[in-house]
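Appendix B, record 7
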Amino acid sequence: MSDWDTVTILRKKPPKASALKTEQAVNAARRQGLPVDTQQKFGAGTNKQHVTTKNTAKLDRETEELRHEKIPLDLGKLIMQGRQAKGMSQKDLATKICEKPQIVNDYEAGRGIPNNVVLGKIERAIGIKLRGKDRGQPLQPPGGQK
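Structure tokens (predicted):
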């Protein structure tokens, strides 16, 4: 035989996964004695979108209200007094500390979520200590105490 008459198959693609799952393929595998693994998917073929999970009862038993910690109202008053003593509006203070005016408004009203970075900026801008035990005292310049 010459080389022109021989056929060389370089690569034969294996059957796709979907072809292996057909009833015909499963029956053929059973006849050959190969192990066949079958699984039923949870909720397959049903329209169950709102299925109760095992954690639902645990959530129902939970009595504590989960909320973010808020700025205390006395801290909001301190910010307001310090800002007014410097003659600044909420917008001026917000511009000075590079934050949105809404954040200053929320902090003064006691609605803001405490953020030490923002509180530190406000402390430096109004010159009043807002964190720690000596809250409301004038802020010492860095290196002032020895």
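Remarks on this record: The helical segments are 17-20, 23-32, 56-61, 73-85, 90-96, 101-109, 116-126. The chain has a mean pLDDT of 80.
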